[in-house]
Every structure is written in structure tokens, then in C-alpha cells.
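Q: Entry one of two.
A:
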Amino acid sequence: MNGDSFMIIRTRLGALASGSFLALAASVGLGGSVRAADAPAIEPEKEVEAVIVTALKGKAADVAPVSSSLTATQPQALITRKFIEESAPRVGDYTTTAILAPSMATTPNSNGSGATDGAKITMRGFQDGEFNVTYDGIAWGDTNGPSHHSNSFFPSSTIGGIVIDRGPGRAGDFGQANFGGSVNLFSLPFEDKPSFRQTLTTGSFQTVQAVTTLASGPIERLHGASGVMNFMEYKTNGYLSNSASDGYNQFLKVNVPITDKISVTALYTHNYNTYYQGDASANATVAQTELYGKRFALGNDPTLQTYKEYNYTKKSTEFGYVKIAGEITEGLNFDNTAYQYWYSNKTLSANDNGADASIGATALAAANKVILNPPATYPAGTAGYPSSAKVFGLPGYTKRNKYRVRGDSLKFTKEFDDVGTLSFGSLFEMAKTGRSRFDFDLISKRPDYREKAAQFTGPSPCRGLPKQVAPGKTWDGACQVPLNIAYNEYSGWHQYQPFVEFAWRATDKLIVTPGVKYVHFKLYNDAPAVAVKGSIQPLDIESTFTKTLPFLTANYRVRDNWSVYGQYAQGFLVPNISSFYVNNPGSNKLVPQESTNYQIGSVFNSGHLTLDGDVYYIDFKHKIQTLTDLATNETYQSNLGGATYRGIEAQATYVLPYGFSLFANGSVNEAKGKGDPLNPGYNGHQLAKVPRGTAALGVRSERHDLLMPNDSLIVTLNDKLIGPQYATAATGATPPTGLVKAFSQADLSATYHTGHYSLQAQVLNLADTQDITSFKGKALLPGTRTPAETVAQGGAANVFTYQVGRSYQVTLKAAF
């Protein structure tokens, strides 16, 4: 295809860094020569394939931090390994890279880039868990709901590129959350010759990281087999007090040709992290920040629940696949990928990380109580053991979450000359999960029986447990579950997604692709003790959800360098496992959330300019909300109401003379509730946690022959702004509250390269802004929807997260 093709994006590893705004641009311009943005690589420098995508060509496309594709059928953002090497934080994860794209927003990691459990991102206001995150085309995520732990699987050093699709995609796109879109991560690529690279990074908060990458290139004696290995280790004390974390990642990927038409690719990664962080609350209350400062999280006093050794997590994950792909006969190809991923979380946590001197002696004494010897009489429904049974202690708990997901994706494609391409196949997937939380005293290590007895008769047998006895009755049916158990459950799913689609080449300029997918998703929960309205009951139940989803996309090539596209597609998102957490889940009529997407857009590339934009309208039905039954005071989930998402998105890169280029993107994002009869404050208002817009600006400079022949200096400065949003959802007639004002962060990066070596310096949060990024709490300023930020205003128990102050990372790299 002219102007746009499937291409291998190559990245010069020496061009590692980033940065440039006008002051720095002037200083860079003091000496050295300028080469065109598409200048060839320096001779001694090794090149590495970043990720195979459909990408633009030209000077602007080569330097664009984020771009789109002339073959796009939905709004798209392409982020190459070149940008990751030049500008993204070296110690980070996919959220620190993807955030620069339009409509992407985040609550940044309050402990520093790449530390502890990472950050969350949203897309057009769709929350984490409402869109897929994939790795080499395989969707992954938690099994109690498809949310993601950003640094638990794939740190930045294992990412070869990112493609963000802002839409449900095509019929052949698989996952657990084909709903709001997808963030598609690609692994490190194979290389065309043997290579060795070593990076060493040091930074603020005593952060250190080492990454070793080995690539074999094609091995002729093994018929062209190739491999790549990557090993990463990091350690940091973290920005917040006593919140250190460390970990490592091991990555192996091999490709073996079986015949001249069929090959096998296998990948395996293992990731391990440990960190100090409160599980009940990872951030300090307002009362604590006024007493200890905004950087307070944990302390060193073993007589308090905030002691760091009482708040500790170990996480271990694995991810792997074996893919066999090739040509069966002329024009008929197949791709069969068997995969699995595994997650293990072992957490020790205090019950209340706000329980210290900041709440006063009386409240602190009340918080530090446990029940080690429960009375013989089991409490009545909704009640716990009497306060007379409480003694001094430090209440805490152990949390265990372990799951394994296995699946197989099988796809066939058949080319029909001058007509189009037929694709068909299916996904088969199953998940098994074990989750539990047991209460105990952090001092004596004995069980703490502080939970409340169940109020209602459970839906499942008591499995040998005694039954509660009500006055005047032999028993009332509620089971006497031990009250040191918050929950203990074994859940999972079985799903399959057959699809068929046909890319019809209507003309030499127009491709129209209709498709259809059928989703069959069975969700189950087998729980000896599961949380129901703050109490517990056994549960054994399953639900099956099905839906036929239509898709229609079109791409029209106006000229070789200009295309327009349109999409109609439906999305589908099954309820989380928490939908079963009601007294009678068998009568729960919860249905999956559905979206209908209408989008049009255009992509233009003139060489010196890349430009794309789109408008979208999404009808969101059956929105799941958590409500409380006024008659029984029972919390439950319902599909009341819906929402309308609509907006405008655009991005552009322009190449200037003298090695400079400019980048900008922006979005206006509206997501308003509708049709909720019980919460009128929800209707017509922007949904909680949905920014009203985003914007990004960037400048890049590339200079050569500064100090010696064939050296180079690349400087980038990128600034991301996230618009205002409300933190707390509407309740009754009250609209969303908890205003979080707009905030932004500028990151500067500079890389000097000569021969086989490079030195990179990065300054994160250049302006040292420390604005509020999220809010949790109830206290508002009187008569407003703005949260109280001080104790004097009544906000002592409110919890805010703040931007991490200015920090740096310095990286030395050798490539051979």
C-alpha cells in the first residue's frame, strides 16, 4: 500500500531519551549539525525491531510520540519502542507510557513511577476493568473482575510497543472486556543479528534498576530459529514513607520454523514484587498528612497499625503462550495460540491504617481492640460478639488471592483474490480463583472474631456448620460461619467466543468489514464463606450470560496519504463476581452491561505532518450500580439507568527545521448518566471518575555531531493534562461530588549517544507540582461538591492522593 503498510518499526537503541522545550532547545542549538528526522542510524549502533504494526511512514511519523494508521477502522494510538526508549520513565509500567494518548487519564502512582502496585488508567472515562489490556493479543486481568495490576506482569522493559484502540474493535478481537476499548501491549521483538544490551538506572528515592537483554538473531544451524531474553531487577525506597518495594522480571521468547510455511513461537515471563503498603488504605488521611506531611504512609512504631511490617505484600505472576501459525494451502492461513497466566497475592495488612496519634487517644484505644476468645453464644443476625469480649490488640488480616487462566485462540484467514479476506475462529477460556481474608491479631497472631453474623438465610447449604437459632424457632436457617472469616471463596469462569468477519475490498480505495461474534460466558462461585452485606454465608451458584454482537467497519482511502473511517460495534461486559454478594443471588436479575458505539474519523500524513481526529457517540445500557434496599438494608447491584458517552479527539505531530518537532493532542470527553429512577442526581450529570477532557503537548529535538563524529543528542519534553472530575458517584437526588481539579505533569528527558554507549537523564514532574489526583471520603465544604482538605474544615478522615514531587532517573546503556 502506498504511504502506509505493515512495517517493522525500528528503533535506534542509542536514541534513548527525551525532552525539549524552548529554553533547552536554544541550548541544544548552540552547536552540532542537524539531520533529517528520517536520517539513517549511526553505523556502530544496533537496531532492534520494536513491534510490527500498521504504521505511518515519513518524517513526522518517525518522531511522533503517538500516531495513528491510514488503515485504522476505529480511533487508535500507536506508541513505538522508540518513544518508550526516548521519553517514558525507565522504571515504570504500561500506564506510564500509555498515558500520553488522547482520552487516557490516570491516578498516578503516589509512591513513584514503577513502585509498589502501580497505577490505574481510564479510557474516555471507562474505568480499568471496562476495557481489555492484552499482551501479544492475549487479554489478561483479574478474575474477580477484569481489572489490572499494572506492574505485576509487564514492566516497561518487556514492552516493545503499544496500540490503543478506543472502541470494541472487530469481531475477531477477544477478551473478557470487549466493551470500552483495548490497550494492546506487544512483547520485545526478535532481532536480525546477535546483540547484547545492558542498562543501569539510578534515581530519586534510592531507586536502582538493571536490565539485561540478549538476542540471538536467526541461527542458521537451527533453520533460522531465533530467541530473545530479558532480565530486569529493581529496588526503591519509594516516595512515601517506609514504602519500599523491589522485584524482578524474567522474559524468554523463541521462534522455531517447523517448515518453510509454519513456525512455532513460545513466550514465558515470570514477575515477582514485594512492597510495603497498607491494603485497607494505601494513603494517609488528612489528619495524618497535617501531622506527618503529605509523604506519610507507614511508620516504624510496632505498637501502631501503621507499622510497616504489618503492611506487606508479596506478588508473583507468570504469563506464557505457545503459538503455531502458518499457511495450510495457498491463501488459507491459521494461527493457534494456547496460553496461560497465573497470579498470586499474599498480603498482610492492618485493619485501619488511619489508626494512630492523628485520631486522638480515645479513638485510638477503640480502634486497637480484638476478640481472641469468642463467647459460647453465637451472635444474632447483623450483630457481632459483644464489646465485653474485646481486649487490647492490633486488628489485621491476611489476604490471599490466587488465580490461573488457561485458554486457546484459534483463527483462520482465507484470501479471495480481488474480493477480500474471510476470517473465522473462536476463543476458548477458563479461569479458576481462590480468594480469602482471615482476621487476626497482629500482636499475638491469633484469630480475631470481629465479623458480624449473617442476617438472612443463605442460598446454599451450611456444609456441616451449625445453624443460627432465632427466638421461638428451632433455627432460622442462617449458618454459623466462624467470625474470623471475612470471605473465603473459589470462583471462576468458562467462556467461548466464536466469530466470523469478512474484509470486503469494495473498490481499490474502500474496504468494508462486517462481522459477528457470539459470547457465551459462565460465571460461578463456590464459597464456604462469602461476604454478604458485611456478614458472611456459604454460597454455591453460577450464572450464564450470552450475547450476539454485530460489527461493521469501513476505511476509505481518499488519497495515498489520507483516509477516513467509520465504525459501528456493540460491546459486552459481564458482571463481576461481586454481583453474587447478596442474600439471594438466585433471584438477582443482573444482566451484562452493553455499549453501542458509533465513530467516524480521519488520518492524514504529509511527511512533515501527521494528523488524525475522530468523534464518537456511545450508548451505554444496563449500567451496573450498587444500591441499598431500604426495607432490608441489604446492599445489592442493579442495572438501573445507563449513560451516554460522546466526545472529540485529535492528535498531530509537525516536523520543524533544525531537528525540532512539535506534538499535541487533546480530547473533550462527556459521559452523562440517564434513565435512573432511584437516583435522579445521576441523570444528566457527568459520571464520577470521568475527566471532562485531556491534553498533551510535546517538543522534540535531535542533534548530531555535537562533540565527535556520529554522536547524537535527543531531547524531549512532554506535558500531559487531565481535566477536572468528580470522585464520588451520585446518590439519590445528590449529584456526583468530590471535585478533583485538573492537574498536569511535564517530563523532560535527554539522551546522549556515541558509539555503543548512551547516557540518559530524565526529570519527572519538572514543575514539581503536587496537586490532588484522587479523593476518597465523605466530608465536603458546606453547600458545595468540593471535598474538605483540612481538619479545620471537617475533613480529618478524608483521603487524598497527590502527585509525586520532582524526581530524576539517570540511565547508562551499553549496546553491542
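Q: Entry two of two.
A:
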Amino acid sequence: MTKLRLSSSILFLLILLAPCFAFANTAPDTSKIMSKAAKLQIPFIENQGQIQDKSVKFYANTFAGNVYVTDKGEIVYGLSNKEDSTSLRETLIGSAPSAIKGESKSVTNVNYFVGNKDNWKSNISTFESVSLGEVYEGVELKLKAYGKNVEKLFYVNECGDVEDIKLKVEGAEDISVNKDGELEIETELGTIKFTKPFAYQEIDGKKIEVKCDFVIDFSSYSFRVASYDKNYPLVIDPLIASTYIWEVGEDYSYDIALDSTGNVFITGHTVGNFPTTAGAYSPTRIDIHNAFVSKLDNTLSTLLASTYLGGSISETAYSIAIDPSGNVYVAGTTGSSNFPITAGAYDSLMNSSDVFISKFNNNLSSLLASTFLGGSTYEGAYDLELDPTGNIYVTGYTNSSDFPTTTGAYDISHNGGYDVFISKLNSTLSTLMGSTFLGGVNSDYVKKMALDSSGNVFVTGYTRSSDFSITTDAYDTSYNGGEDVFISKLDNTLTSLLASTFIGGTYNDYGRAIAIDSSDNVFVTGEPSTGFPTIAGSYDTSPNGGYDVFVIKMNNQLNTLVASTFIGGNNNDYGYGIAVDSWGSVYVTGETSSSIYPVGSAIPFPTTEGAFDTSHNLQRDVFVSKLDNMLTSLNASTFLGGEHSEYGRAIVLDSSGNVYVTGETDSNGSSGSHVFPTTEGAYNTTPEYYVTFFIFISKLDHYLTAGKGIPTAITLSSFTADLKNKKVLLTWQTATEIDNLGFNVLRSESESGPYTKINKKLIKSKGSSTKGASYKLKDKNIEAGKTYWYKLEDIDSNTGPAQHDAVKVEVTAKKVKAKK
């Protein structure tokens, strides 16, 4: 029997940049690694109930995403990028496959120990291919999965007809064939490609090519082949493209938090073998796409704890917070019905794609509470905050009209498209205390949340809804067009919209992050469009080209724009994270492509003298910038990056004013150029060459110098500590003082910190003096047998606090001179 063989494969166009470089003389050949990964055959796993969707018969977890085969013969591709997920579904038109089975049983069996013990599965069979049987008269279809694609093999025998084969694609915004003959499918995440079919016959030991093309009919496609010798089989095989959404490994860090002892926690999404620790809640990867939570010490030298979090489909954690007891909360989005949920949780039933909120103990060994939150379609959680009483606020967006709301909430009706939701749960995640929609007829997207000192809830994001909920006395009550930034304030019961405003230019403006200072002023960062409002006297009131970063300051009632500035250069700059220190200084992080090129016409992203890195490192760099509270001065600004691309996602400050930034980078130095900067003794200073994006965590001093030399308002002659009558007497002498507002004395039981202030009020200084002065302070709150470290901090009226070298005192029965 002569058979005609047709095959096509789905490939994923590059959405995230992939590195293509190696360390000179030492790095492995990255292209060979990627090539081997692309050709690696991935087995199909039989669904024996580990996936609760009973329509799924087989599935495979490839590096390019998940593929599912349903009992109706549908082929479903699960796609995701850094921020979102979607799916494509292929259906054979006019076919009803009924003989779906695995073929060529693999030697590998898999176990699923996820969720409740009653749902555990062991020794599940896997197969090298899946046969859908005869899908049309004389036409059989088989599937094979590889590292980076899924191959469809059509076998057309002498009684079959190629023209019968027709597939409908659902989940696509558009389908077309490009100039290279590739099938391009537009999705909400970007463009996906099916490679051009390559047809050939083997005749007398030679390959004879036969022309083959895709044929498009609205949302479906078929194959057209040229004439060929019917006495020989015809093979149609894909040409493998070179770029994909997922490489061998990708890790993304979206948020960062500190506990009361200064330990650093991050959370995000991983595709690969992420480092975990013994004793962690889930040290073994459950699926190729899982969330993670990791804990490091404040010197970033030790991975103290690290765990996966997820089920058998896909999870991303976007936010993390720590309560006063050290418990760790994370929130994000999951597509896994077997995501771990605890007894007594508010919602234990998963819908299409739900929010998850999970609570761990401080060492990440126990899942203390975990719940779903959602309606019947899609929702994603993008931020969470904790109030002083331990209640949890979570925000995100949803297109579920039945998303849970509470009686008396501000808005209990879905408004259209994607709406913002804001929900409040108790600390055990067992009770929904409040929940409301916020939005208009078009789609509204929230990015971040903050609480003021009264517990009011502020959210920011962007909207296309001209009827978005705005209060009458707001700063801007008129929709400006395109995407407008919104800033909204609700009471802590989520029953009243206290204030809400638009802010924007004539096109697309994006609100990305929000912070509140000690006076309850509101700061927001993001990207503006032409006509975005600025305030005279602000640092930069003129657009620089491309997207700039904006930073604005508003009063608590959102009816006054107090200050507004741009930060940027002539290319695109994006603001993703913002924080305010105890002195009111404003820190912003994000990414910038603005360098010194092209020479002569470039406007580089601004940096400051003495900063850690004042030279742009090509492609995209992280930036970290510090402004004064009125946004009139750029007090410090630095790049942070390597040869390729970096993204600064989140920023947090410790009690000593140190700055922590996290995100991801693909600058591993494998081209022979400089890697992303790490420090001696850090947990991991060696990049992985086969990882597309890997996470970074960086710690800088508040001058953003990373120890390159800290300017100071004073010249310090001496700083000593002596034990006297069960007290430590601290004395210091200045030689000169310039614009010095005063002093704090900080104490720690470890030289590396964290340090906390021991004086109740700022210690008054001479201000400006060429003669200097003497000062002293007694520390009465000490314990015998302990060792203490003290730091002196002076407050410069122009640039804020600066810390000096620590001194050490051992509390014994005799007087001990401090040691440097």
C-alpha cells in the first residue's frame, strides 16, 4: 500500500530574548545545547486522573509549552509568556476520531504526588507517540512531541485524499501565510508560527522535493501539494525554526520582600530546574511551569530556603508579603485544578484559571493556608498587601461576571471586558471579608496596590474605559484617550470609593507601581504618552523620546498633582517598581534602552557621579534612580546590567536604607563580554549557559554606589562604644559638618545587620560647622553575654542618610573599648 505522509509542527516565535553567546574558551556551545534540546523527544503521558479535565487523554510537557490531546481528537496547545497565558485549539473539520491511543510505550513511568493523598497517582504510562487513528477515509494521524515542537504526521494511503484534511484553529486573532510560506497565528501573547511543510519522496536512494503549501480559509488551514510519483510514498516534514517562547530554562522574579530580621524573599515563575532546599514544602518540580518562593540572607550569600509551588498545569506568582510573625504570603495565577489547597480554605474549587493565595511559614517548610479565588473564566492576581491586623488584600483583573463579591461592596456587578477586582481575606484564608469590582465597559488592568496609614486601599493600573469609576473632585475626571492611568482609593472594607482619578496624555499611558510615604502622599510610576502632565520645577518636564518613565506625587485625596517628572533618554524606558524611604526619598526601578548611541544625537538615560555604573551596557539595562520627595532633584541614579538584556521588576528598602532590586537577565557573558555583575561570596556568581533568563537580586547602598564610596555630610574624627554600669556609652566627635540635620545610632547583633535605630528622636547636630562637635548617647537596653554592633548615621539635608563603619562592643563585666 502506497502512503502519502504529511507532517507539520507548531513552533513558538521568540517573545522573550534568547541568549546566543558563550564564555570564551570555557563555555559550552550554546547552539549545540539548544539544538539538542529541540530534537529531544518528549513522551506523551496518559491521563489517569492526575489532570481533572476528563476530556484530556494524553499530554506532553515540552520546553515550548504543554500540548493536550482530547477524547474528541482536539489538539490543545498551552502557551504562556512572562505575564500571561492562553491556548490554541486545533480541531479536525469533518472528523470524529474514536481510536485515540498511545503507541511505542516508553520505558519511563511517571508519578504524581500532588495535592491530597487520595489524588496521588503512580506508575503512569508514557508513550513516544499518540495515534488518532483514521481521521478521514484513508488518512491516519499521529503526533510526536519534541523539546521545542509538536509534530503532526498525516499518512494518506492510496484511497485517501489530501484535500480532505482541514484543521480549524480556535484561540487565534488572525491566521495568515507569510512570504516564507510559514503559517503565522496571531494570539493575544504575540505571533506563533507553524513551519512551512517540506515535502519529498525517496526514489532510488535520493530525496526528491515536492512543493507543498498551506492553504488558508478564514480560521482554518489545509495542505496543497504539487503532482508527485504515486508509486512512491510522499513525506511532508517541517523545517525547524530557530526561535521559541521557552528555551531550556527560564526564570522570572516578579516581587521581593524583607522579613523583620532582614532576610530577602522573592517569588515568580520558573521553567526548568530551579534550586530548592532540603526540607522545603515542595523541593521537586511538579510541572515544567511552576511558581517558586525563595529566601536568602541579607548579604545574598546563602539560599536559606526555596520551594516550588504549583500543580500539573502552570502557575505564576506575582506578589509576596511578610507578616510581623514572619509568615510568607504569595499570590498569583494558576491553571492547575490540583494546585495545593488547604482544609478550610475559602475556595477549594478551581475554575478555568483562578487566583491563588498561599501562606507559608518563614522557612518555607509548611503550607499554612492556601485558597483559590475566582469565577468561571479568567482572573489573575498581581499584587497583595497585609494590614497591621493580618488581613490580606489582593488585587488583579478578571473577565468573570460571577467573580465573588460581598454584600455592601462598592461594585458587585461586572462592567465589561476585564475588570479590576480588589478582595480582602482573613489571615487564615478561610473568609472573604470584602470583595469588589472596579472598572468600566472596556478592559481595565491593575498592576499594584498600597495601603496608607489609615488602612485605605490604593490601586493603580491602566484603562480603556471612558466610564471608569472616577470621583467628582478628582484631579482629572476626563478620559484622555488610549490607555489612561488610573489611581483609585477605597476604604478598608471595600464598600466606598473615596477617590479616583485619571491621569494621562493623548495616547497610551501605563501605571505600573504605587507607593505611599509617611505623610500619606501617593507616588506612582509607569510610562507616559505625549501630553502627560508635569509640574514646573520638577526634575525633568520635557519628553526625551520613545517611552519615558514618569514619576508622580499626588495628595492622599487624589485631587492635587503635587509633583510630576520624566526620567529617561531617547529610546524606550519603563518604570516597574517604586519605593519611598523613611526620609521621603523616592526610588524607582525598571528597564532602559537609552544609551549614548547614536553618537551625537542620543539622549542617554541619566545617571549620577559616583553611581555604581554610569555606562549603559547595550540592549536593555536595569536602572535604579533616587529622587527627592518633591521630585525636583535626581539624587542618585545607576545602571545595572551586562551585555544583553535586564529587567528590574521590583524594589524594596531595608531599615538601614539599603536598596534591593530583583528581576531577570540574560547577560551570562558567554559571548566573552561582561556578565551581569555579581559580588564575591554571593550565593551564585556563575550563570547557566542553557538558561534563557535567570533571576538576579542586587543590593545597593542608598547612594546607589554599592560601596564605591559614600559621600557624607560630616567628617567623623571618632566613634566609640564603652560598657559603663550596664549601659553602653556611645560617643563621637566630628571635625566638620555641612548641611547636617542630625544623627541616628543604629544597632544590630550581627555585623551584617539588619540595624535598627535606638534613639527615639533625631539627635540634633551643629548643621554646618568648620569646628565640629562632640556627641553622646546611652544604650540601656542591653543583655549580658551578647555582642552588639553600632553604626552612626548622619542625615544630609540634600541627599539623606549616610552610615559610617560599625563598631563592636561585647557586654561583659568590665569596660570594653569598641573595636572597628
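A: Comment on entry two: Helices lie at 30-39. The chain is about 0% helix and 50% strand.
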